Records
---
Amino acid sequence: MEKKLMKGNEAFAAAAISAGCRYYFGYPITPQNEVPEYMSRELRNVGGHFIQAESELASISFIYGAAAAGARCMTSSSSIGIALMQEGLGSCVVCELPCVIINVMRAGPGIGAIQPAQADYTQVVKSGMNGDAHCIVYAPTSIQEAVNMIYHAFDVADEYRNPVIICVDGMIGQMMEPVIIPESRAVIEEKDIEKTKPWALCGHRNRRDRNKINSVFLNQYELEDRIMNRLLPKFEKAKKELPEWESRNLEGAEAVFVAYGSTARIAIEAMELLEKEGIKVGIIRPKTLWPFPDAAFDEIDSKTTKVVISVELSLGQMLEDIRLALEGRYPTALINRVGGILLSPVEVAERTKAVLGGMK
Amino acid sequence: MKPVFEYTQGMRDKETHYCPGCSHGVAHRLIMEVLVERGELGKAIGVSPVGCSITAHQYLNVDMIESPHGRAPAVAAGIKRVHPKAQVFTYQGDGDLASIGGNEILHSAERGEKICTFFINNAIYGMTGGQMAPTTLIGQKATTCPYGRDLDNYGLPMKMAEIVSCMDLAVYVERVALNTPANIRKAKQAINRAFEVQKLGLGYAFVEILSACPTNWGLQPAKAMEWVTRNMIPYFPLGQLCCPEEVK
Amino acid sequence: MSGKKAIFIAGFGGQGVLLIGQMLSYAALFDDKEVTWMPAYGPEMRGGTANCTVVISDTAISSPLVTECDVLIAMNGASLAKFEDMLVPGGELFVNTGLCPEPPKRKDINIHYVDCTNIAEEKLGNTKVANMVMLGAVNQITKITTLETMFKVFEYTLKGPKAKLIPLNMRAMEAWSE
């Protein structure tokens, strides 16, 4: 396949089309507008459908409908737009409807700033949805990784019958990098949906009982049954099978960074700066945020590591999960910026030295 | 013996949870009868609202999905894009459609979504226990306007059929009522025209159905029907607001 | 070019600041290098400030954003004043003389004056390629890429009716001399 120079947002859209997504519904919001723009331009060329919805509430409802009808579908938005989608997202989870959502994060709370941030961690990982709901969350660090994850996400969504969120930030959405878009997959035709997704709404054609997609039960034991016997086993399976991470330089490391997405790139460069000064730092980069890769933390070198440092663009939202995974084994620290301000490798390196200095 | 009236195959064999005198049962049955008579039961997909009829899928013998509050037209439009030949309809109450879902209904009409909407207007919130709706009449009492709806605070009840009919691609808009046998027959014809409009791909079809909610109005069922006649119909006039030649 | 180079390009909207960066990025792609292009994005009005960072490297690039750069292209005076300090000592500064009335302050860098708009007008008869004159100057000094690669870049980016502009753009690459 040809390596192309592409803007992150455009590459995300291209990857979705390659993965067989033919339905995109979205509402403009910076910094992800190139996703709907690309979709509006390209989907019709492959027989797909693009609708600019009247709001994020409508976008996720279109998704809920199209997913229920058995189609591979996607929406994208940014932070506050994702906040608006939470009700519909929860409906997709409880009704077990597969779909993919791209969140190109910006700073908040409220309208906030359009610059990159990672302060949606809690919103997407712990979920802003009511009820016991989880979305599967991937956090790519480069455009190529994002493309690969989006391509894969449609399969994961179908396998788990659950929404999958790809969580990036404005930096990865707006930058350009060389990227290879994977080969186009065969698309499931409308007439084959009832075979591949027997639960989907296609009309019963007087051949079977009617399908219903619901989350309201007049008997609440049925809802408990849905949660305990359908959702919970799936969430447990996801926790076993889906966690992914990358780790580097853990052996002999004095400190270990934990960073995801764009911030991991900054942290890796800080790690190299520190190495030049004789300070050995390792890094754990979660590729899935939910399920969180708890097992990654067993790889830390207990003989040398003094501290585990969360490097993130929030007030330490991921740090809570790191502490849960560490179960008190190591002290923790936080190196962060908020409000749309990015960390620089030099700043991370300097603040790491301060953390280590404070521990002596 | 020859049966003169049968349980329609469009309804599942299940007793409804609706109160005595509620119009939902009649509206459900009319929609299902139309689909059976049109031979389209098997290609229909329904979207139920938040409100008393949220679990309409218990009763209607068609593929169905519950919608988040007010979003039924967007959900239906998503379904219709995937199954363009299906008969996709939303079934919505006045709180769902006119209040929280005002935006979705207008934009679906504006886009000329090839779906049908059946709008059950009973001028009150049923499921939550009789609160004021956007269609509650001036002076009508509800649990959140115990002294009667007043003009100063809440303005006038929303005439949704008229509002929707302003959208040029809402090609078929009619208001009907379920208060008398004659009107019920007219309602059935309207429902049939709405599905015909969808089948022909002419545009968006919207049928407002004036209905009774005896429980939350505090009236006996028969009195509730009279209340529709006396109070609702004068403010919400019956009739077609627009109708394409093809289905007249 | 070998190793890693960070190029920072700044000016105002409409000068082709982002395009200079993209052309450099395409060249790096065709030269089989790693590259990142990162624009500053914001609610800027048309004609407001514009800048982007290009990092080109033989090995994987971590951060696409830099606090210091090896090459700075200042397309106007405000950008020169604002970003001059980002250059590493010994770095290459390219000044669009037509729009930078104040000279640079730094003494520990290599300064190249490029009157790109005038050159584009007088030598090429088209001010629209002023940004490519600047890119040509940068390439002559830094040897980031080759003219052969630039030809491929123009072939890739100028297709259809725009293909006739390729010779003009190639001439722009060589229009400046120190």
Note: The interface with chain A takes residues 12, 17, 41-45, 47, 54-55, 57-58, 60-71, 74-79, 81-83, 86-87, 103-104, 106-107, 111 of chain B (CB under 8 Å).
---
Amino acid sequence: MIVFLQSVLSGVLIGGVYALVGIGLTIIFGVMRVINFAHGELVMIGMYLTWIIFTGLAIDPFVSILISIPAMFAVGALIQKTLINRVLGALPENQILLTVGLGLVLSNLVMLFFTSDYRILTTSYSSSTLRLAGLSVSTPLAISFAITSAITALLYWFLLKTDTGQGIRATAQDRDAAQLMGINVKRMSLLAFGIGAALAGTAGALISPTYYIFPQVGGVFTLKAFVIVVLGGMGSVLGATLGGVIIGVTESLAAVYISAGMKELFVYVLFLIVLLFRPAGLLGRSRV
Amino acid sequence: MAIRVNDLPRALTRSRRSTLFSFAAVAAVALVLLLVPRAVQSPYLLHVMILFFLAVSMGESWNVIGGYTGQYSLGHAAYFGTGAYTTLMLLQYRHIAPWWGAWAAVGAALVVALVIGSICFRLRGPYFTLASIAVAEIIRLIALNWKPVTNGAEGILLMDIPPLKIGGMLVTDWLSKAPFYYIGLVLALVTLLVNYLVGRSKLGYCFQAIREDQDAAHSLGINPAFYKNVALAISAVFTALTGAFYGLYIGFIDPHTVLGIDLSVEMVLICIIGGIGTNLGPVVGALVLVPLSEALRANLLARLLFSAGLLDETSRAGAFLKENLAHAHVLIYGILVVLVILFMPDGVLGFAKKLLARRSPGRVPSPSPGAVLGGPDANP
Amino acid sequence: MQILEIRHLFKFFGGLAANADVSFSVEKGMIMGLIGPNGSGKTTLFNCITGYYPPSKGEVVFKGQRLHGLQPDRVCKLGMARTWQKVRPLAKLNVLDNVMVGALARTNSLKVARQAAMEQLELVRMAHRAAMLAGGLSIGERNKLEVSRGLATRPELLLLDEVMGGLNPAESDEIIQLILEIKARGFTQIVIEHDMKAIMRISDRIVCLNTGEKLAEGSPQEIVHNPDVITAYLGDAQVA
């Protein structure tokens, strides 16, 4: 029983980080109807950014998000402006291929400059644990969950309470109508991709103390982000939050009870099951 | 023939003449290619040609489902890997000759295609693409973790291939390139022929109707699920054969090289660079990609920069490029995808056609005034 | 002789009834007009008849056979063809190939299909466009392409969904002539149309839907004088 609770707890904690990745993807999809196949690579860039800041400037990974959030926002906005914007009206297949290509470019550029060696970011607290109601929790995971929750709360507030946030939601709901209502749709798209990239980068920063850092790490995150987003319903932020936690717990349980090597397999199987039986997601209404 | 040729509009007969021409051109090229190993002694050149045939076969196989039927599978490594693993495992562990093993590979790929098709074809568009990636990843993870059967991440290193008797000829020398050259050439021609035949049959019409508008096709008596599965089966069979050929030629396979997503992307890339949905597109794509990646491997680009005096070989940047550019072919693939999608979404062939049309506008029927309201570009 | 009978057909989307208790029958060889204000459930009814939606309740009987659960391709093979309100040309195929796709529902031979397709194109006077990409056609031509593609599947019943939408008077007139010509060849047709004058001219009988229910049925004369229809259409019909 302890083992079960233990793995559920660590699943929830890592699920919070997954949720960030998923929320970013879902916001981009919502506003532009573009599925960003390079999303995991943005997580990867976030990880390397954190690693550089840590090894070069000796800034703690959790503090470094103050630098990486604006930096990743800029990267996202740049990608939107130079690439995504040009294919908004193109065939969805071409949009997919463009972002797939972008992902290849990002991961291989990083490989070019940093080689494909695995990097580890070791902090003083990397392997320390906290005791919590009889369960032990990895300290970096606990901190990252706290930060994740704060950021998610902030994001909800932004989307629900600010004019800009409502503009993004309106654009996601109906792009044409939003445009007619005088919302600057182009600016919303730029913001959406920027926020999506910033969230992905933050997730990368938050997991960097506990994950191996290597150029190909993004692929797994792209697929996980899809699973999360499809699970929660394409375009739903609340759904992505929930989806992230579900994936985190599934993975953690599969790793403990079945095999660590097979945990991703279960994520994909879950993904297919959801695609087939709840294509609109767990929370979403069914779309014709 | 029921309709006399001069009943048909002139543009139609013209397109017929041009296919006849390209048919003759392909035949002539094939004939020349058949003679190459007699004239060329360089194993490296033959190796590059074999890689070219592999790329053509991969692209042409993908084209049946992706190009003709419009189902953008990004999980075709699943069939490639299934073909390679089945053939090599049978040869290595059961001593079954690959020309029999290849049939088993075809069977296995059909089973995989049937399973994938029944799951993924309930989904459309990007959802199908996502599902195809997920299924391919599942298969890769199984191959990685099912060590007793697949030898896991270590992969399979092929020991030797038994002699093959064709007619009166006995092929024993599997270390030389020539036998693989001929097999590769035949495979490439067969996949090209398959595409041609699909295009000239009811199947091709049904596939393309589904690609253009699945609902409209459905109302015209086409069962989309059935025809998509047929397209996938054809595509999977030839992808698996290509995979088997690859495994035998290279002599080593592991889950990453024959089941990874990079490979799936490469198949799509070959088609999109040449022009998706055209028979010769994958050939053009292979003509661009294979020499390019070989040039990178041989560090031609860096050498070119040095010899042109643009870069000093001993400088830091020079040393960096010299060391790393050789491994950067996937990076170049990525850049190519992005550039092609942005600047020539119809591939090299489509781009060339557009250029030709611009030069002699009379050759193409001019669009009617109504086309302004919603041409093919305006309403994808 | 009845070719199609719709019995107490309901179609719900969520809690919303897009069709509610619709019943009528169509005689062989006639043109049945289907009218109603926007959102009255005409296209939904077409989708139920042709197999795109399974009806929530009730049934569709075609040539004595219940269609329940049959997919659109089976319905087509049974002898029913349709056009789409928002036209669906196979944009990257040429016009002849578009019609050939329809003809291939009845044959496996490309040669036979090509000839049948040319005949259909001549019927709609589009033979000169055979080699052109369907995506490049004008709206009027696209509508005619839809009709000829449907006819190429050799249907007994043809369902036309606003084939005069967006056309100028001359083009509409051409389509009206075409519909009458198709009738003369013995086909049965159900025609959804907004243009009241046109529908009065061509229909033998008219069904009027309103908010998913059948409001009235009768000859064009009866319909045009039916007070309920006039109320439902006030504005819409008068202008047209």
Note: The beta strands of chain C are 2-13, 16-27, 31-35, 57-62, 65-66, 80-82, 157-161, 188-192, 205-210, 213-218.
